[in-house]
C-alpha cells in the first residue's frame, strides 16, 4: 500500500545506524529470511558478538524489487504475539543487510564475492524447490539457473583464488538440507570437470550443516500498512511481521557455536549432533496441521489460522488431529510431544498476526507428501485402519485441487495432473492415487484409501466442510 505522505525508510532518515563488514552471504531475499537470519544477525551485532552484515543474493531471475535500493536495504520487522504470558508488539529497523545482488544482472559482482576474505558464512532459503539439480546448468552460464549451480560457481572461484572455504547453513524445509546441497554441489563439480583439487577443497575447507527453522512469518502486513506508516512515521515496502517464537536447530561441528554466537546472544538456537527428532516434531506437528487446516478451512470459507482456531469444529479437529493421529506416530516421548502440540496451538491462536490459509496452501501437494502422508501411511500400517482426520484433510485437498471451488496455487505440472484426472470424475481418485509424481509413490494399494476418499469427497461436495467435520466427530448427515 502506498502512503506517500510519509517519507520512505532509508539511511537518510536514520543516519546513525551502524554498518559492519560483510560476513554472511544469503541466497534468498524472501520474507522468512528477512525476519529470521537477518533479524538474528542484528541481535548478535547489537550485543557486539558478531559485527557482520549480510549480502543477499537473488536466487531467481524475476526483477529485483526497487524497494531494496530505495530503502538502503533497511526494513522493519514487527514482532507480534504472546511470549511468557506477555503481549509483545515490537518493531525494529533491520540494518544487517548491506546489499542485494542479482546474479542475473550483476554476475561478475556476484562472483567477486569470492574475493572477500571477510565472508565466512552462507545461508539460504529458496523454498522447498530451490535445492535442486538442473542438468542444463554449466559453469560458463552467467548465471546458472539453479541455486546449487550458482553456489558451485561461487565456490569454484573462491577455490581458484586459494582462499578459505565457507560454513554453509541452508534453511530450506527439506530433510537433510545441508547434505542435499553438498551432494548437488559435488555433482556439478564432477560433471563440470572442475578437478580433484576443487573436490578436495570443497570437502576439507567447507562445512555443510543441516538445519531446521521455526518461526511463523506471515510477511507484509498489508491490512495495517497505512496505520503502521502513521505510527512509525515512515513508509516501508519491505516490512515483515513475525511471531516472537524462534527456533533454529543447527547440526554442525563443535566449533560452530563460538564462531556464530547465536545462543550466547540469547536466541533459541540449538547446536546439535542430530536434528532429526526436532525435524520430525516440527514438520509433522506444526506444518502438518497447517496443511490440513488450510485444506479444510478454505473449503469451510475461513481465511486465517486464527479463524480456524476460533472455530468450534475446526479447532477440535486440529487438536484431535495432533493428539490422536500425529503424536502416537512419532518416535519421541509422548509427554514432550503433547506439550509441544499445545504450545503450537497457542502460537496458532496468536491474535496479533494474520496468517492466511491461502498462503499456507501454496504447493499443498508437495507439503502433504512430506508433512502428513508419512503419518497416514504409518498409522494405516500399525493400526490396520486409516486416520480419519488426515484422510479427511486429504479428501479436502483433492476437492480443492479440482479447481471448481477454490483458487489453486501449485506448479503447472501438478495442476495439469489434477485437471486430467478430474476430467473423468468417476475414475479421478484412483487415477490420482496412482500418480507417483504427486505423492512420491503409488498410493492405489493402500487398503481402503480410495474408497474412503471417495466417500469423504462425496460428503464434502454434498454437505460442505463443516457438516462433514461434524459427521466425522459423531454427528449425522442426511444420507447416513
Ligand atoms: N513464512 C514462514 O512462516 C516460514 C517459516 C518457516 C519456513 N519457511 C520456509 O521459507 C520458504 C520461503 O518462505 P517466504 O515466506 O520467505 O517466501 P517468499 O516468497 O517471501 O520468498 C521465497 C524466496 O525463495 C526464492 N525462490 C522461490 N522459488 C525458488 C526456486 N525454485 N529456486 C530458487 N529460489 C526460489 C525466491 O526468490 C525468494 O527469495 C517457504 O517455502 C518455507 O518453506 C517459511
Ligand atoms: O512456509 P510454507 O509455505 O512452506 O508453509 C506454511 C507454514 O506451514 C510454515 O510457513 C510455518 O508457518 C513455518 O514453517 C513455521 O516455522
TrEMBL record:
Catalyses: D-mannitol 1-phosphate + NAD(+) = beta-D-fructose 6-phosphate + NADH + H(+)
Q: Name one Pfam family in it.
A: Mannitol_dh_C
Q: Which domain of life is it from?
A: Bacteria
- Which residue numbers delimit the Mannitol dehydrogenase C-terminal domain? 274-459
Under the heading InterPro entries, the entry gives:
6-PGluconate_DH-like_C_sf, 6PGD_dom2, Mannitol_DH, Mannitol_DH_C, Mannitol_DH_N, NAD(P)-bd_dom_sf
Q: Which residues form the Mannitol dehydrogenase N-terminal domain?
A: 23-260
Question: Keywords of this protein's UniProt record, alphabetized?
Answer: NAD, Oxidoreductase
Matches recorded under PANTHER family? ALTRONATE OXIDOREDUCTASE-RELATED, MANNITOL-1-PHOSPHATE 5-DEHYDROGENASE
Record protein name field = Tagaturonate reductase
Amino acid at each position: 500500500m502506498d502512503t506517500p505522505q510519509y517519507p520512505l525508510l532509508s539511511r537518510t532518515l536514520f543516519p546513525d545506524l551502524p554498518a559492519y563488514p560483510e560476513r554472511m552471504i544469503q541466497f534468498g531475499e524472501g520474507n522468512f529470511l528477512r525476519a529470521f537470519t537477518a533479524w538474528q544477525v542484528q541481535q548478535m551485532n547489537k550485543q557486539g558478538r558478531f559485527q557482520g552484515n549480510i549480502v543477499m543474493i537473488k536466487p531467481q531471475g524475476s526483477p529485483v524489487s526497487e524497494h531494496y535500493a530505495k530503502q538502503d536495504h533497511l526494513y522493519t520487522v514487527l514482532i507480534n504475539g504472546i511470549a511468557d504470558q506477555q503481549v509483545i508488539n515490537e518493531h525494529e529497523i533491520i540494518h544487517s543487510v548491506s546489499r542485494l545482488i542479482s546474479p542475473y544482472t550483476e554476475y561478475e559482482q556476484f562472483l567477486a564475492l569470492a574475493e572477500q576474505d571477510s565472508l565466512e558464512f552462507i545461508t539460504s532459503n529458496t523454498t522447498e524447490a530451490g535445492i535442486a539439480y538442473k542438468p542444463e546448468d554449466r559453469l560458463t552460464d552467467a548465471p546458472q539457473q539453479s541455486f546449487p549451480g550458482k553456489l558451485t560457481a561461487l565456490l569454484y572461484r573462491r577455490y581458484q583464488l586459494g582462499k578459505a572455504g565457507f560454513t554453509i547453513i541452508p534453511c530450506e524445509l527439506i530433510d537433510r538440507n545441508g547434505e542435499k546441497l553438498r551432494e548437488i554441489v559435488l555433482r556439478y563439480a564432477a560433471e563440470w570437470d572442475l578437478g580433484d583439487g576443487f573436490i578436495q577443497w570443497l570437502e576439507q575447507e567447507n562445512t555443510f550443516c543441516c538445519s531446521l527453522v521455526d518461526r511463523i512469518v506471515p510477511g507484509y502486513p498489508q491490512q495495517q500498512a497505512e496505520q503502521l506508516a502513521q505510527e512509525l512515521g515512515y513508509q516501508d515496502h519491505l516490512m515483515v511481521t513475525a511471531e516472537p517464537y524462534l527456533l533454529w536447530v543447527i547440526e554442525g561441528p563443535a566449533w560452530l557455536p563460538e564462531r556464530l554466537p547465536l545462543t550466547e546472544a540469547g536466541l533459541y538456537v540449538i547446536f546439535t549432533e542430530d536434528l532429526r527428532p526436532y525435524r520430525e516434531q516440527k514438520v509433522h506437528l506444526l506444518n502438518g496441521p497447517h496443511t490440513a487446516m488450510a485444506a479444510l478451512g478454505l473449503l469451510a470459507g475461513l481465511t486465517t489460522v486464527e479463524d480456524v482456531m476460533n472455530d468450534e469444529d475446526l479447532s477440535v479437529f486440529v487438536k484431535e488431529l495432533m493428539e490422536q493421529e500425529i503424536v502416537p506416530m512419532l518416535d519421541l516421548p509422548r509427554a514432550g510431544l503433547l506439550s509441544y502440540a499445545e504450545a503450537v496451538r497457542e502460537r496458532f491462536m496468536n491474535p496479533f498476526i494474520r496468517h492466511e490459509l491461502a498462503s499456507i496452501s501454496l504447493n499443498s501437494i508437495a507439503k502433504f507428501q512430506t508433512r502428513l502422508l508419512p503419518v497416514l501411511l504409518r498409522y494405516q500400517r500399525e493400526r490396520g485402519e486409516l486416520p480419519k482426520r488426515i484422510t479427511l484433510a486429504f479428501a479436502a485437498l483433492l476437492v480443492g485441487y479440482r479447481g471448481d471451488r477454490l483458487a489453486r496455487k501449485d506448479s503447472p505440472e501438478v495442476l495439469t495432473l489434477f485437471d486430467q484426472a478430474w476430467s473423468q470424475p468417476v475414475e479421478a481418485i484412483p487415477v490420482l492415487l496412482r500418480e507417483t509424481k504427486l505423492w512420491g509413490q503409488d498410493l492405489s494399494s493402500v487398503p481402503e484409501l480410495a474408497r474412503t476418499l471417495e466417500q469423504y469427497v462425496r460428503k464434502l461436495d454434498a454437505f460442505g466442510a463443516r457438516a462433514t467435520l461434524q459427521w466425522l466427530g459423531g454427528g449425522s448427515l442426511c444420507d447416513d
